[in-house]
Amino acid sequence: MFAARANSARQLLGAALMSCSVGLTAPARSAETPPLTHGLTPLPNPSAAPALALPDLDGKIHDLTALKGKPVVVNFWATWCPPCRREMPSLERLRQTLGSRGLEVLAVDVGEDADTVFAFTGQLEPAPNYPLLLDRDSAAMQRWKVKGLPTTFVVDAQGIIVFRAVGGREFDHAAIVEQLTRLLPPQ
């Protein structure tokens, strides 16, 4: 059973590699990379978020169910994925902008170890101040039906996935901030 699961994880990671250019480029935009986009796609048939309980870099388990009552941005990513690398600072700026109003951010690294993630995030400005979760065996990626990286879901306060974004986003762009603000209680 372990061999079948490991093979499945390798296949998913292989598919993710095919959907995202492989390489360790700097987070800055290069001539070959398209710009990050500025919108989230509303789901025509919103559904309950799958289970998500993973360790962070320190081994502490974070469970999505503990965040019920708050909207949550769930970002699946990897350090080898150029658009993932480019969008990470904007997730922190989004958290800085809307976190005090109740928005939570969880970044789920797929298939890598804590040392790799820690080394990468140390290069980011601003550095992430939200949980960086480790999906070492890609089980969460499978449950959430992630086909490529980066893929981001927005879960509303009731635990329903209401938005999805496949590909890199500039999460602190005014259009995305406006979409997410509608999920928050009025000020």
Notes on the structure:
The protein is of the alpha/beta class. It has one domain: 3-Layer(aba) Sandwich (Glutaredoxin). Helix content is 30%, strand content 23%. The protein has helices spanning 2-19, 82-98, 114-121, 139-143, 174-181, and strands spanning 41-48, 53-55, 61-63, 72-77, 104-110, 132-135, 151-155, 160-166. The strands form 2 sheets. It has a 6-stranded mixed beta sheet. Strand 2 and strand 3 (61-63) form a beta hairpin. The longest helix has 18 residues, at 2-19.
Summarize the structure.
The protein has about 190 residues and is of the alpha/beta class. It has one domain: Glutaredoxin (3-Layer(aba) Sandwich).
Topology diagram in text:
Elements: H1 2-19, E1 41-48, E2 53-55, E3 61-63, E4 72-77, H2 82-98, E5 104-110, H3 114-121, E6 132-135, H4 139-143, E7 151-155, E8 160-166, H5 174-181
Parallel strand pairs: 4-5, 5-6
Antiparallel strand pairs: 1-8, 2-3, 4-7, 7-8
